[in-house]
Amino acid sequence: MQITDFMYKQIIALFLIVFTFTVHAQTAATLKVEGEVQTPLTLTIKDLATFKNTPIKAKDRDGKEHSYTGVALHEVLQQAGVTLGGQLRGENLAKYIRIKATDGYEVVYSLAEVDPEFTDKVVVLAYEVDGKPLPIGEGPFRIVAPGDKKHARWIRQIASIKILFAKD
Ligand SMILES: Nc1nc2c(c(=O)[nH]1)N[C@H]1C(S)=C(S)[C@@H](COP(=O)(O)O)O[C@H]1N2
Ligand SMILES: [Mo]
């Protein structure tokens, strides 16, 4: 079969449409911060870009170093009014962060694990790798936690971050 000029144009048009929709889906995707917070948040990449930035270099699962751009998780939680810093004591130490992805994967960090008054390890909510938005299947948001020796809590495709109470 010969590809006519018309068919060629149709193929190009189709690619453009699919491309536009996937780019739109990435930039419009939101991340919820909810649960034991003062102010629940719904964030897009654009919103996150207005937060204090924490650029970090970290090795991926294959040992390859990448430059990630993102916001320290505690900065996001602070914005939502989570009990961190001076407020992270007593029963508040029984609170944890449950992060859920669009594929159903879930991981947990305790509040103390992300509070800079407790630890020098950083847990970053990343939205760019090597200067580009995280690819589909990984982004728009993922955790980068170079303090973890295993990558299992580097959760990809984050949909929500919920603060919960483990106390009876
Ligand atoms: N949403 C989601 N994130 C995930 C996983 C998953 O199954 N789903 N697997 C984890 C595991 S076990 C590892 S080792 C790393 C691997 O990250 P990579 O796929 O970017 O190499 O992703 C983590 N994040
Ligand atoms: Mo893994």
TrEMBL record:
SUPFAM superfamilies, per database record: Oxidoreductase molybdopterin-binding domain (SSF56524)
Organism: Dawidia cretensis
Signal peptide from the UniProt entry: 1-25
Protein name: Molybdopterin-dependent oxidoreductase
All residue ranges annotated as the Oxidoreductase molybdopterin-binding domain in the record: 29-159
Cross-referenced InterPro entries: OxRdtase_Mopterin-bd_dom, OxRdtase_Mopterin-bd_sf
Keyword Coiled coil found: no
Source organism superkingdom: Bacteria
Pfam families: Oxidored_molyb
Entry annotated with the keyword Signal: yes
This protein's UniProt keywords: Signal
Source lineage: Bacteria, Pseudomonadati, Bacteroidota, Cytophagia, Cytophagales
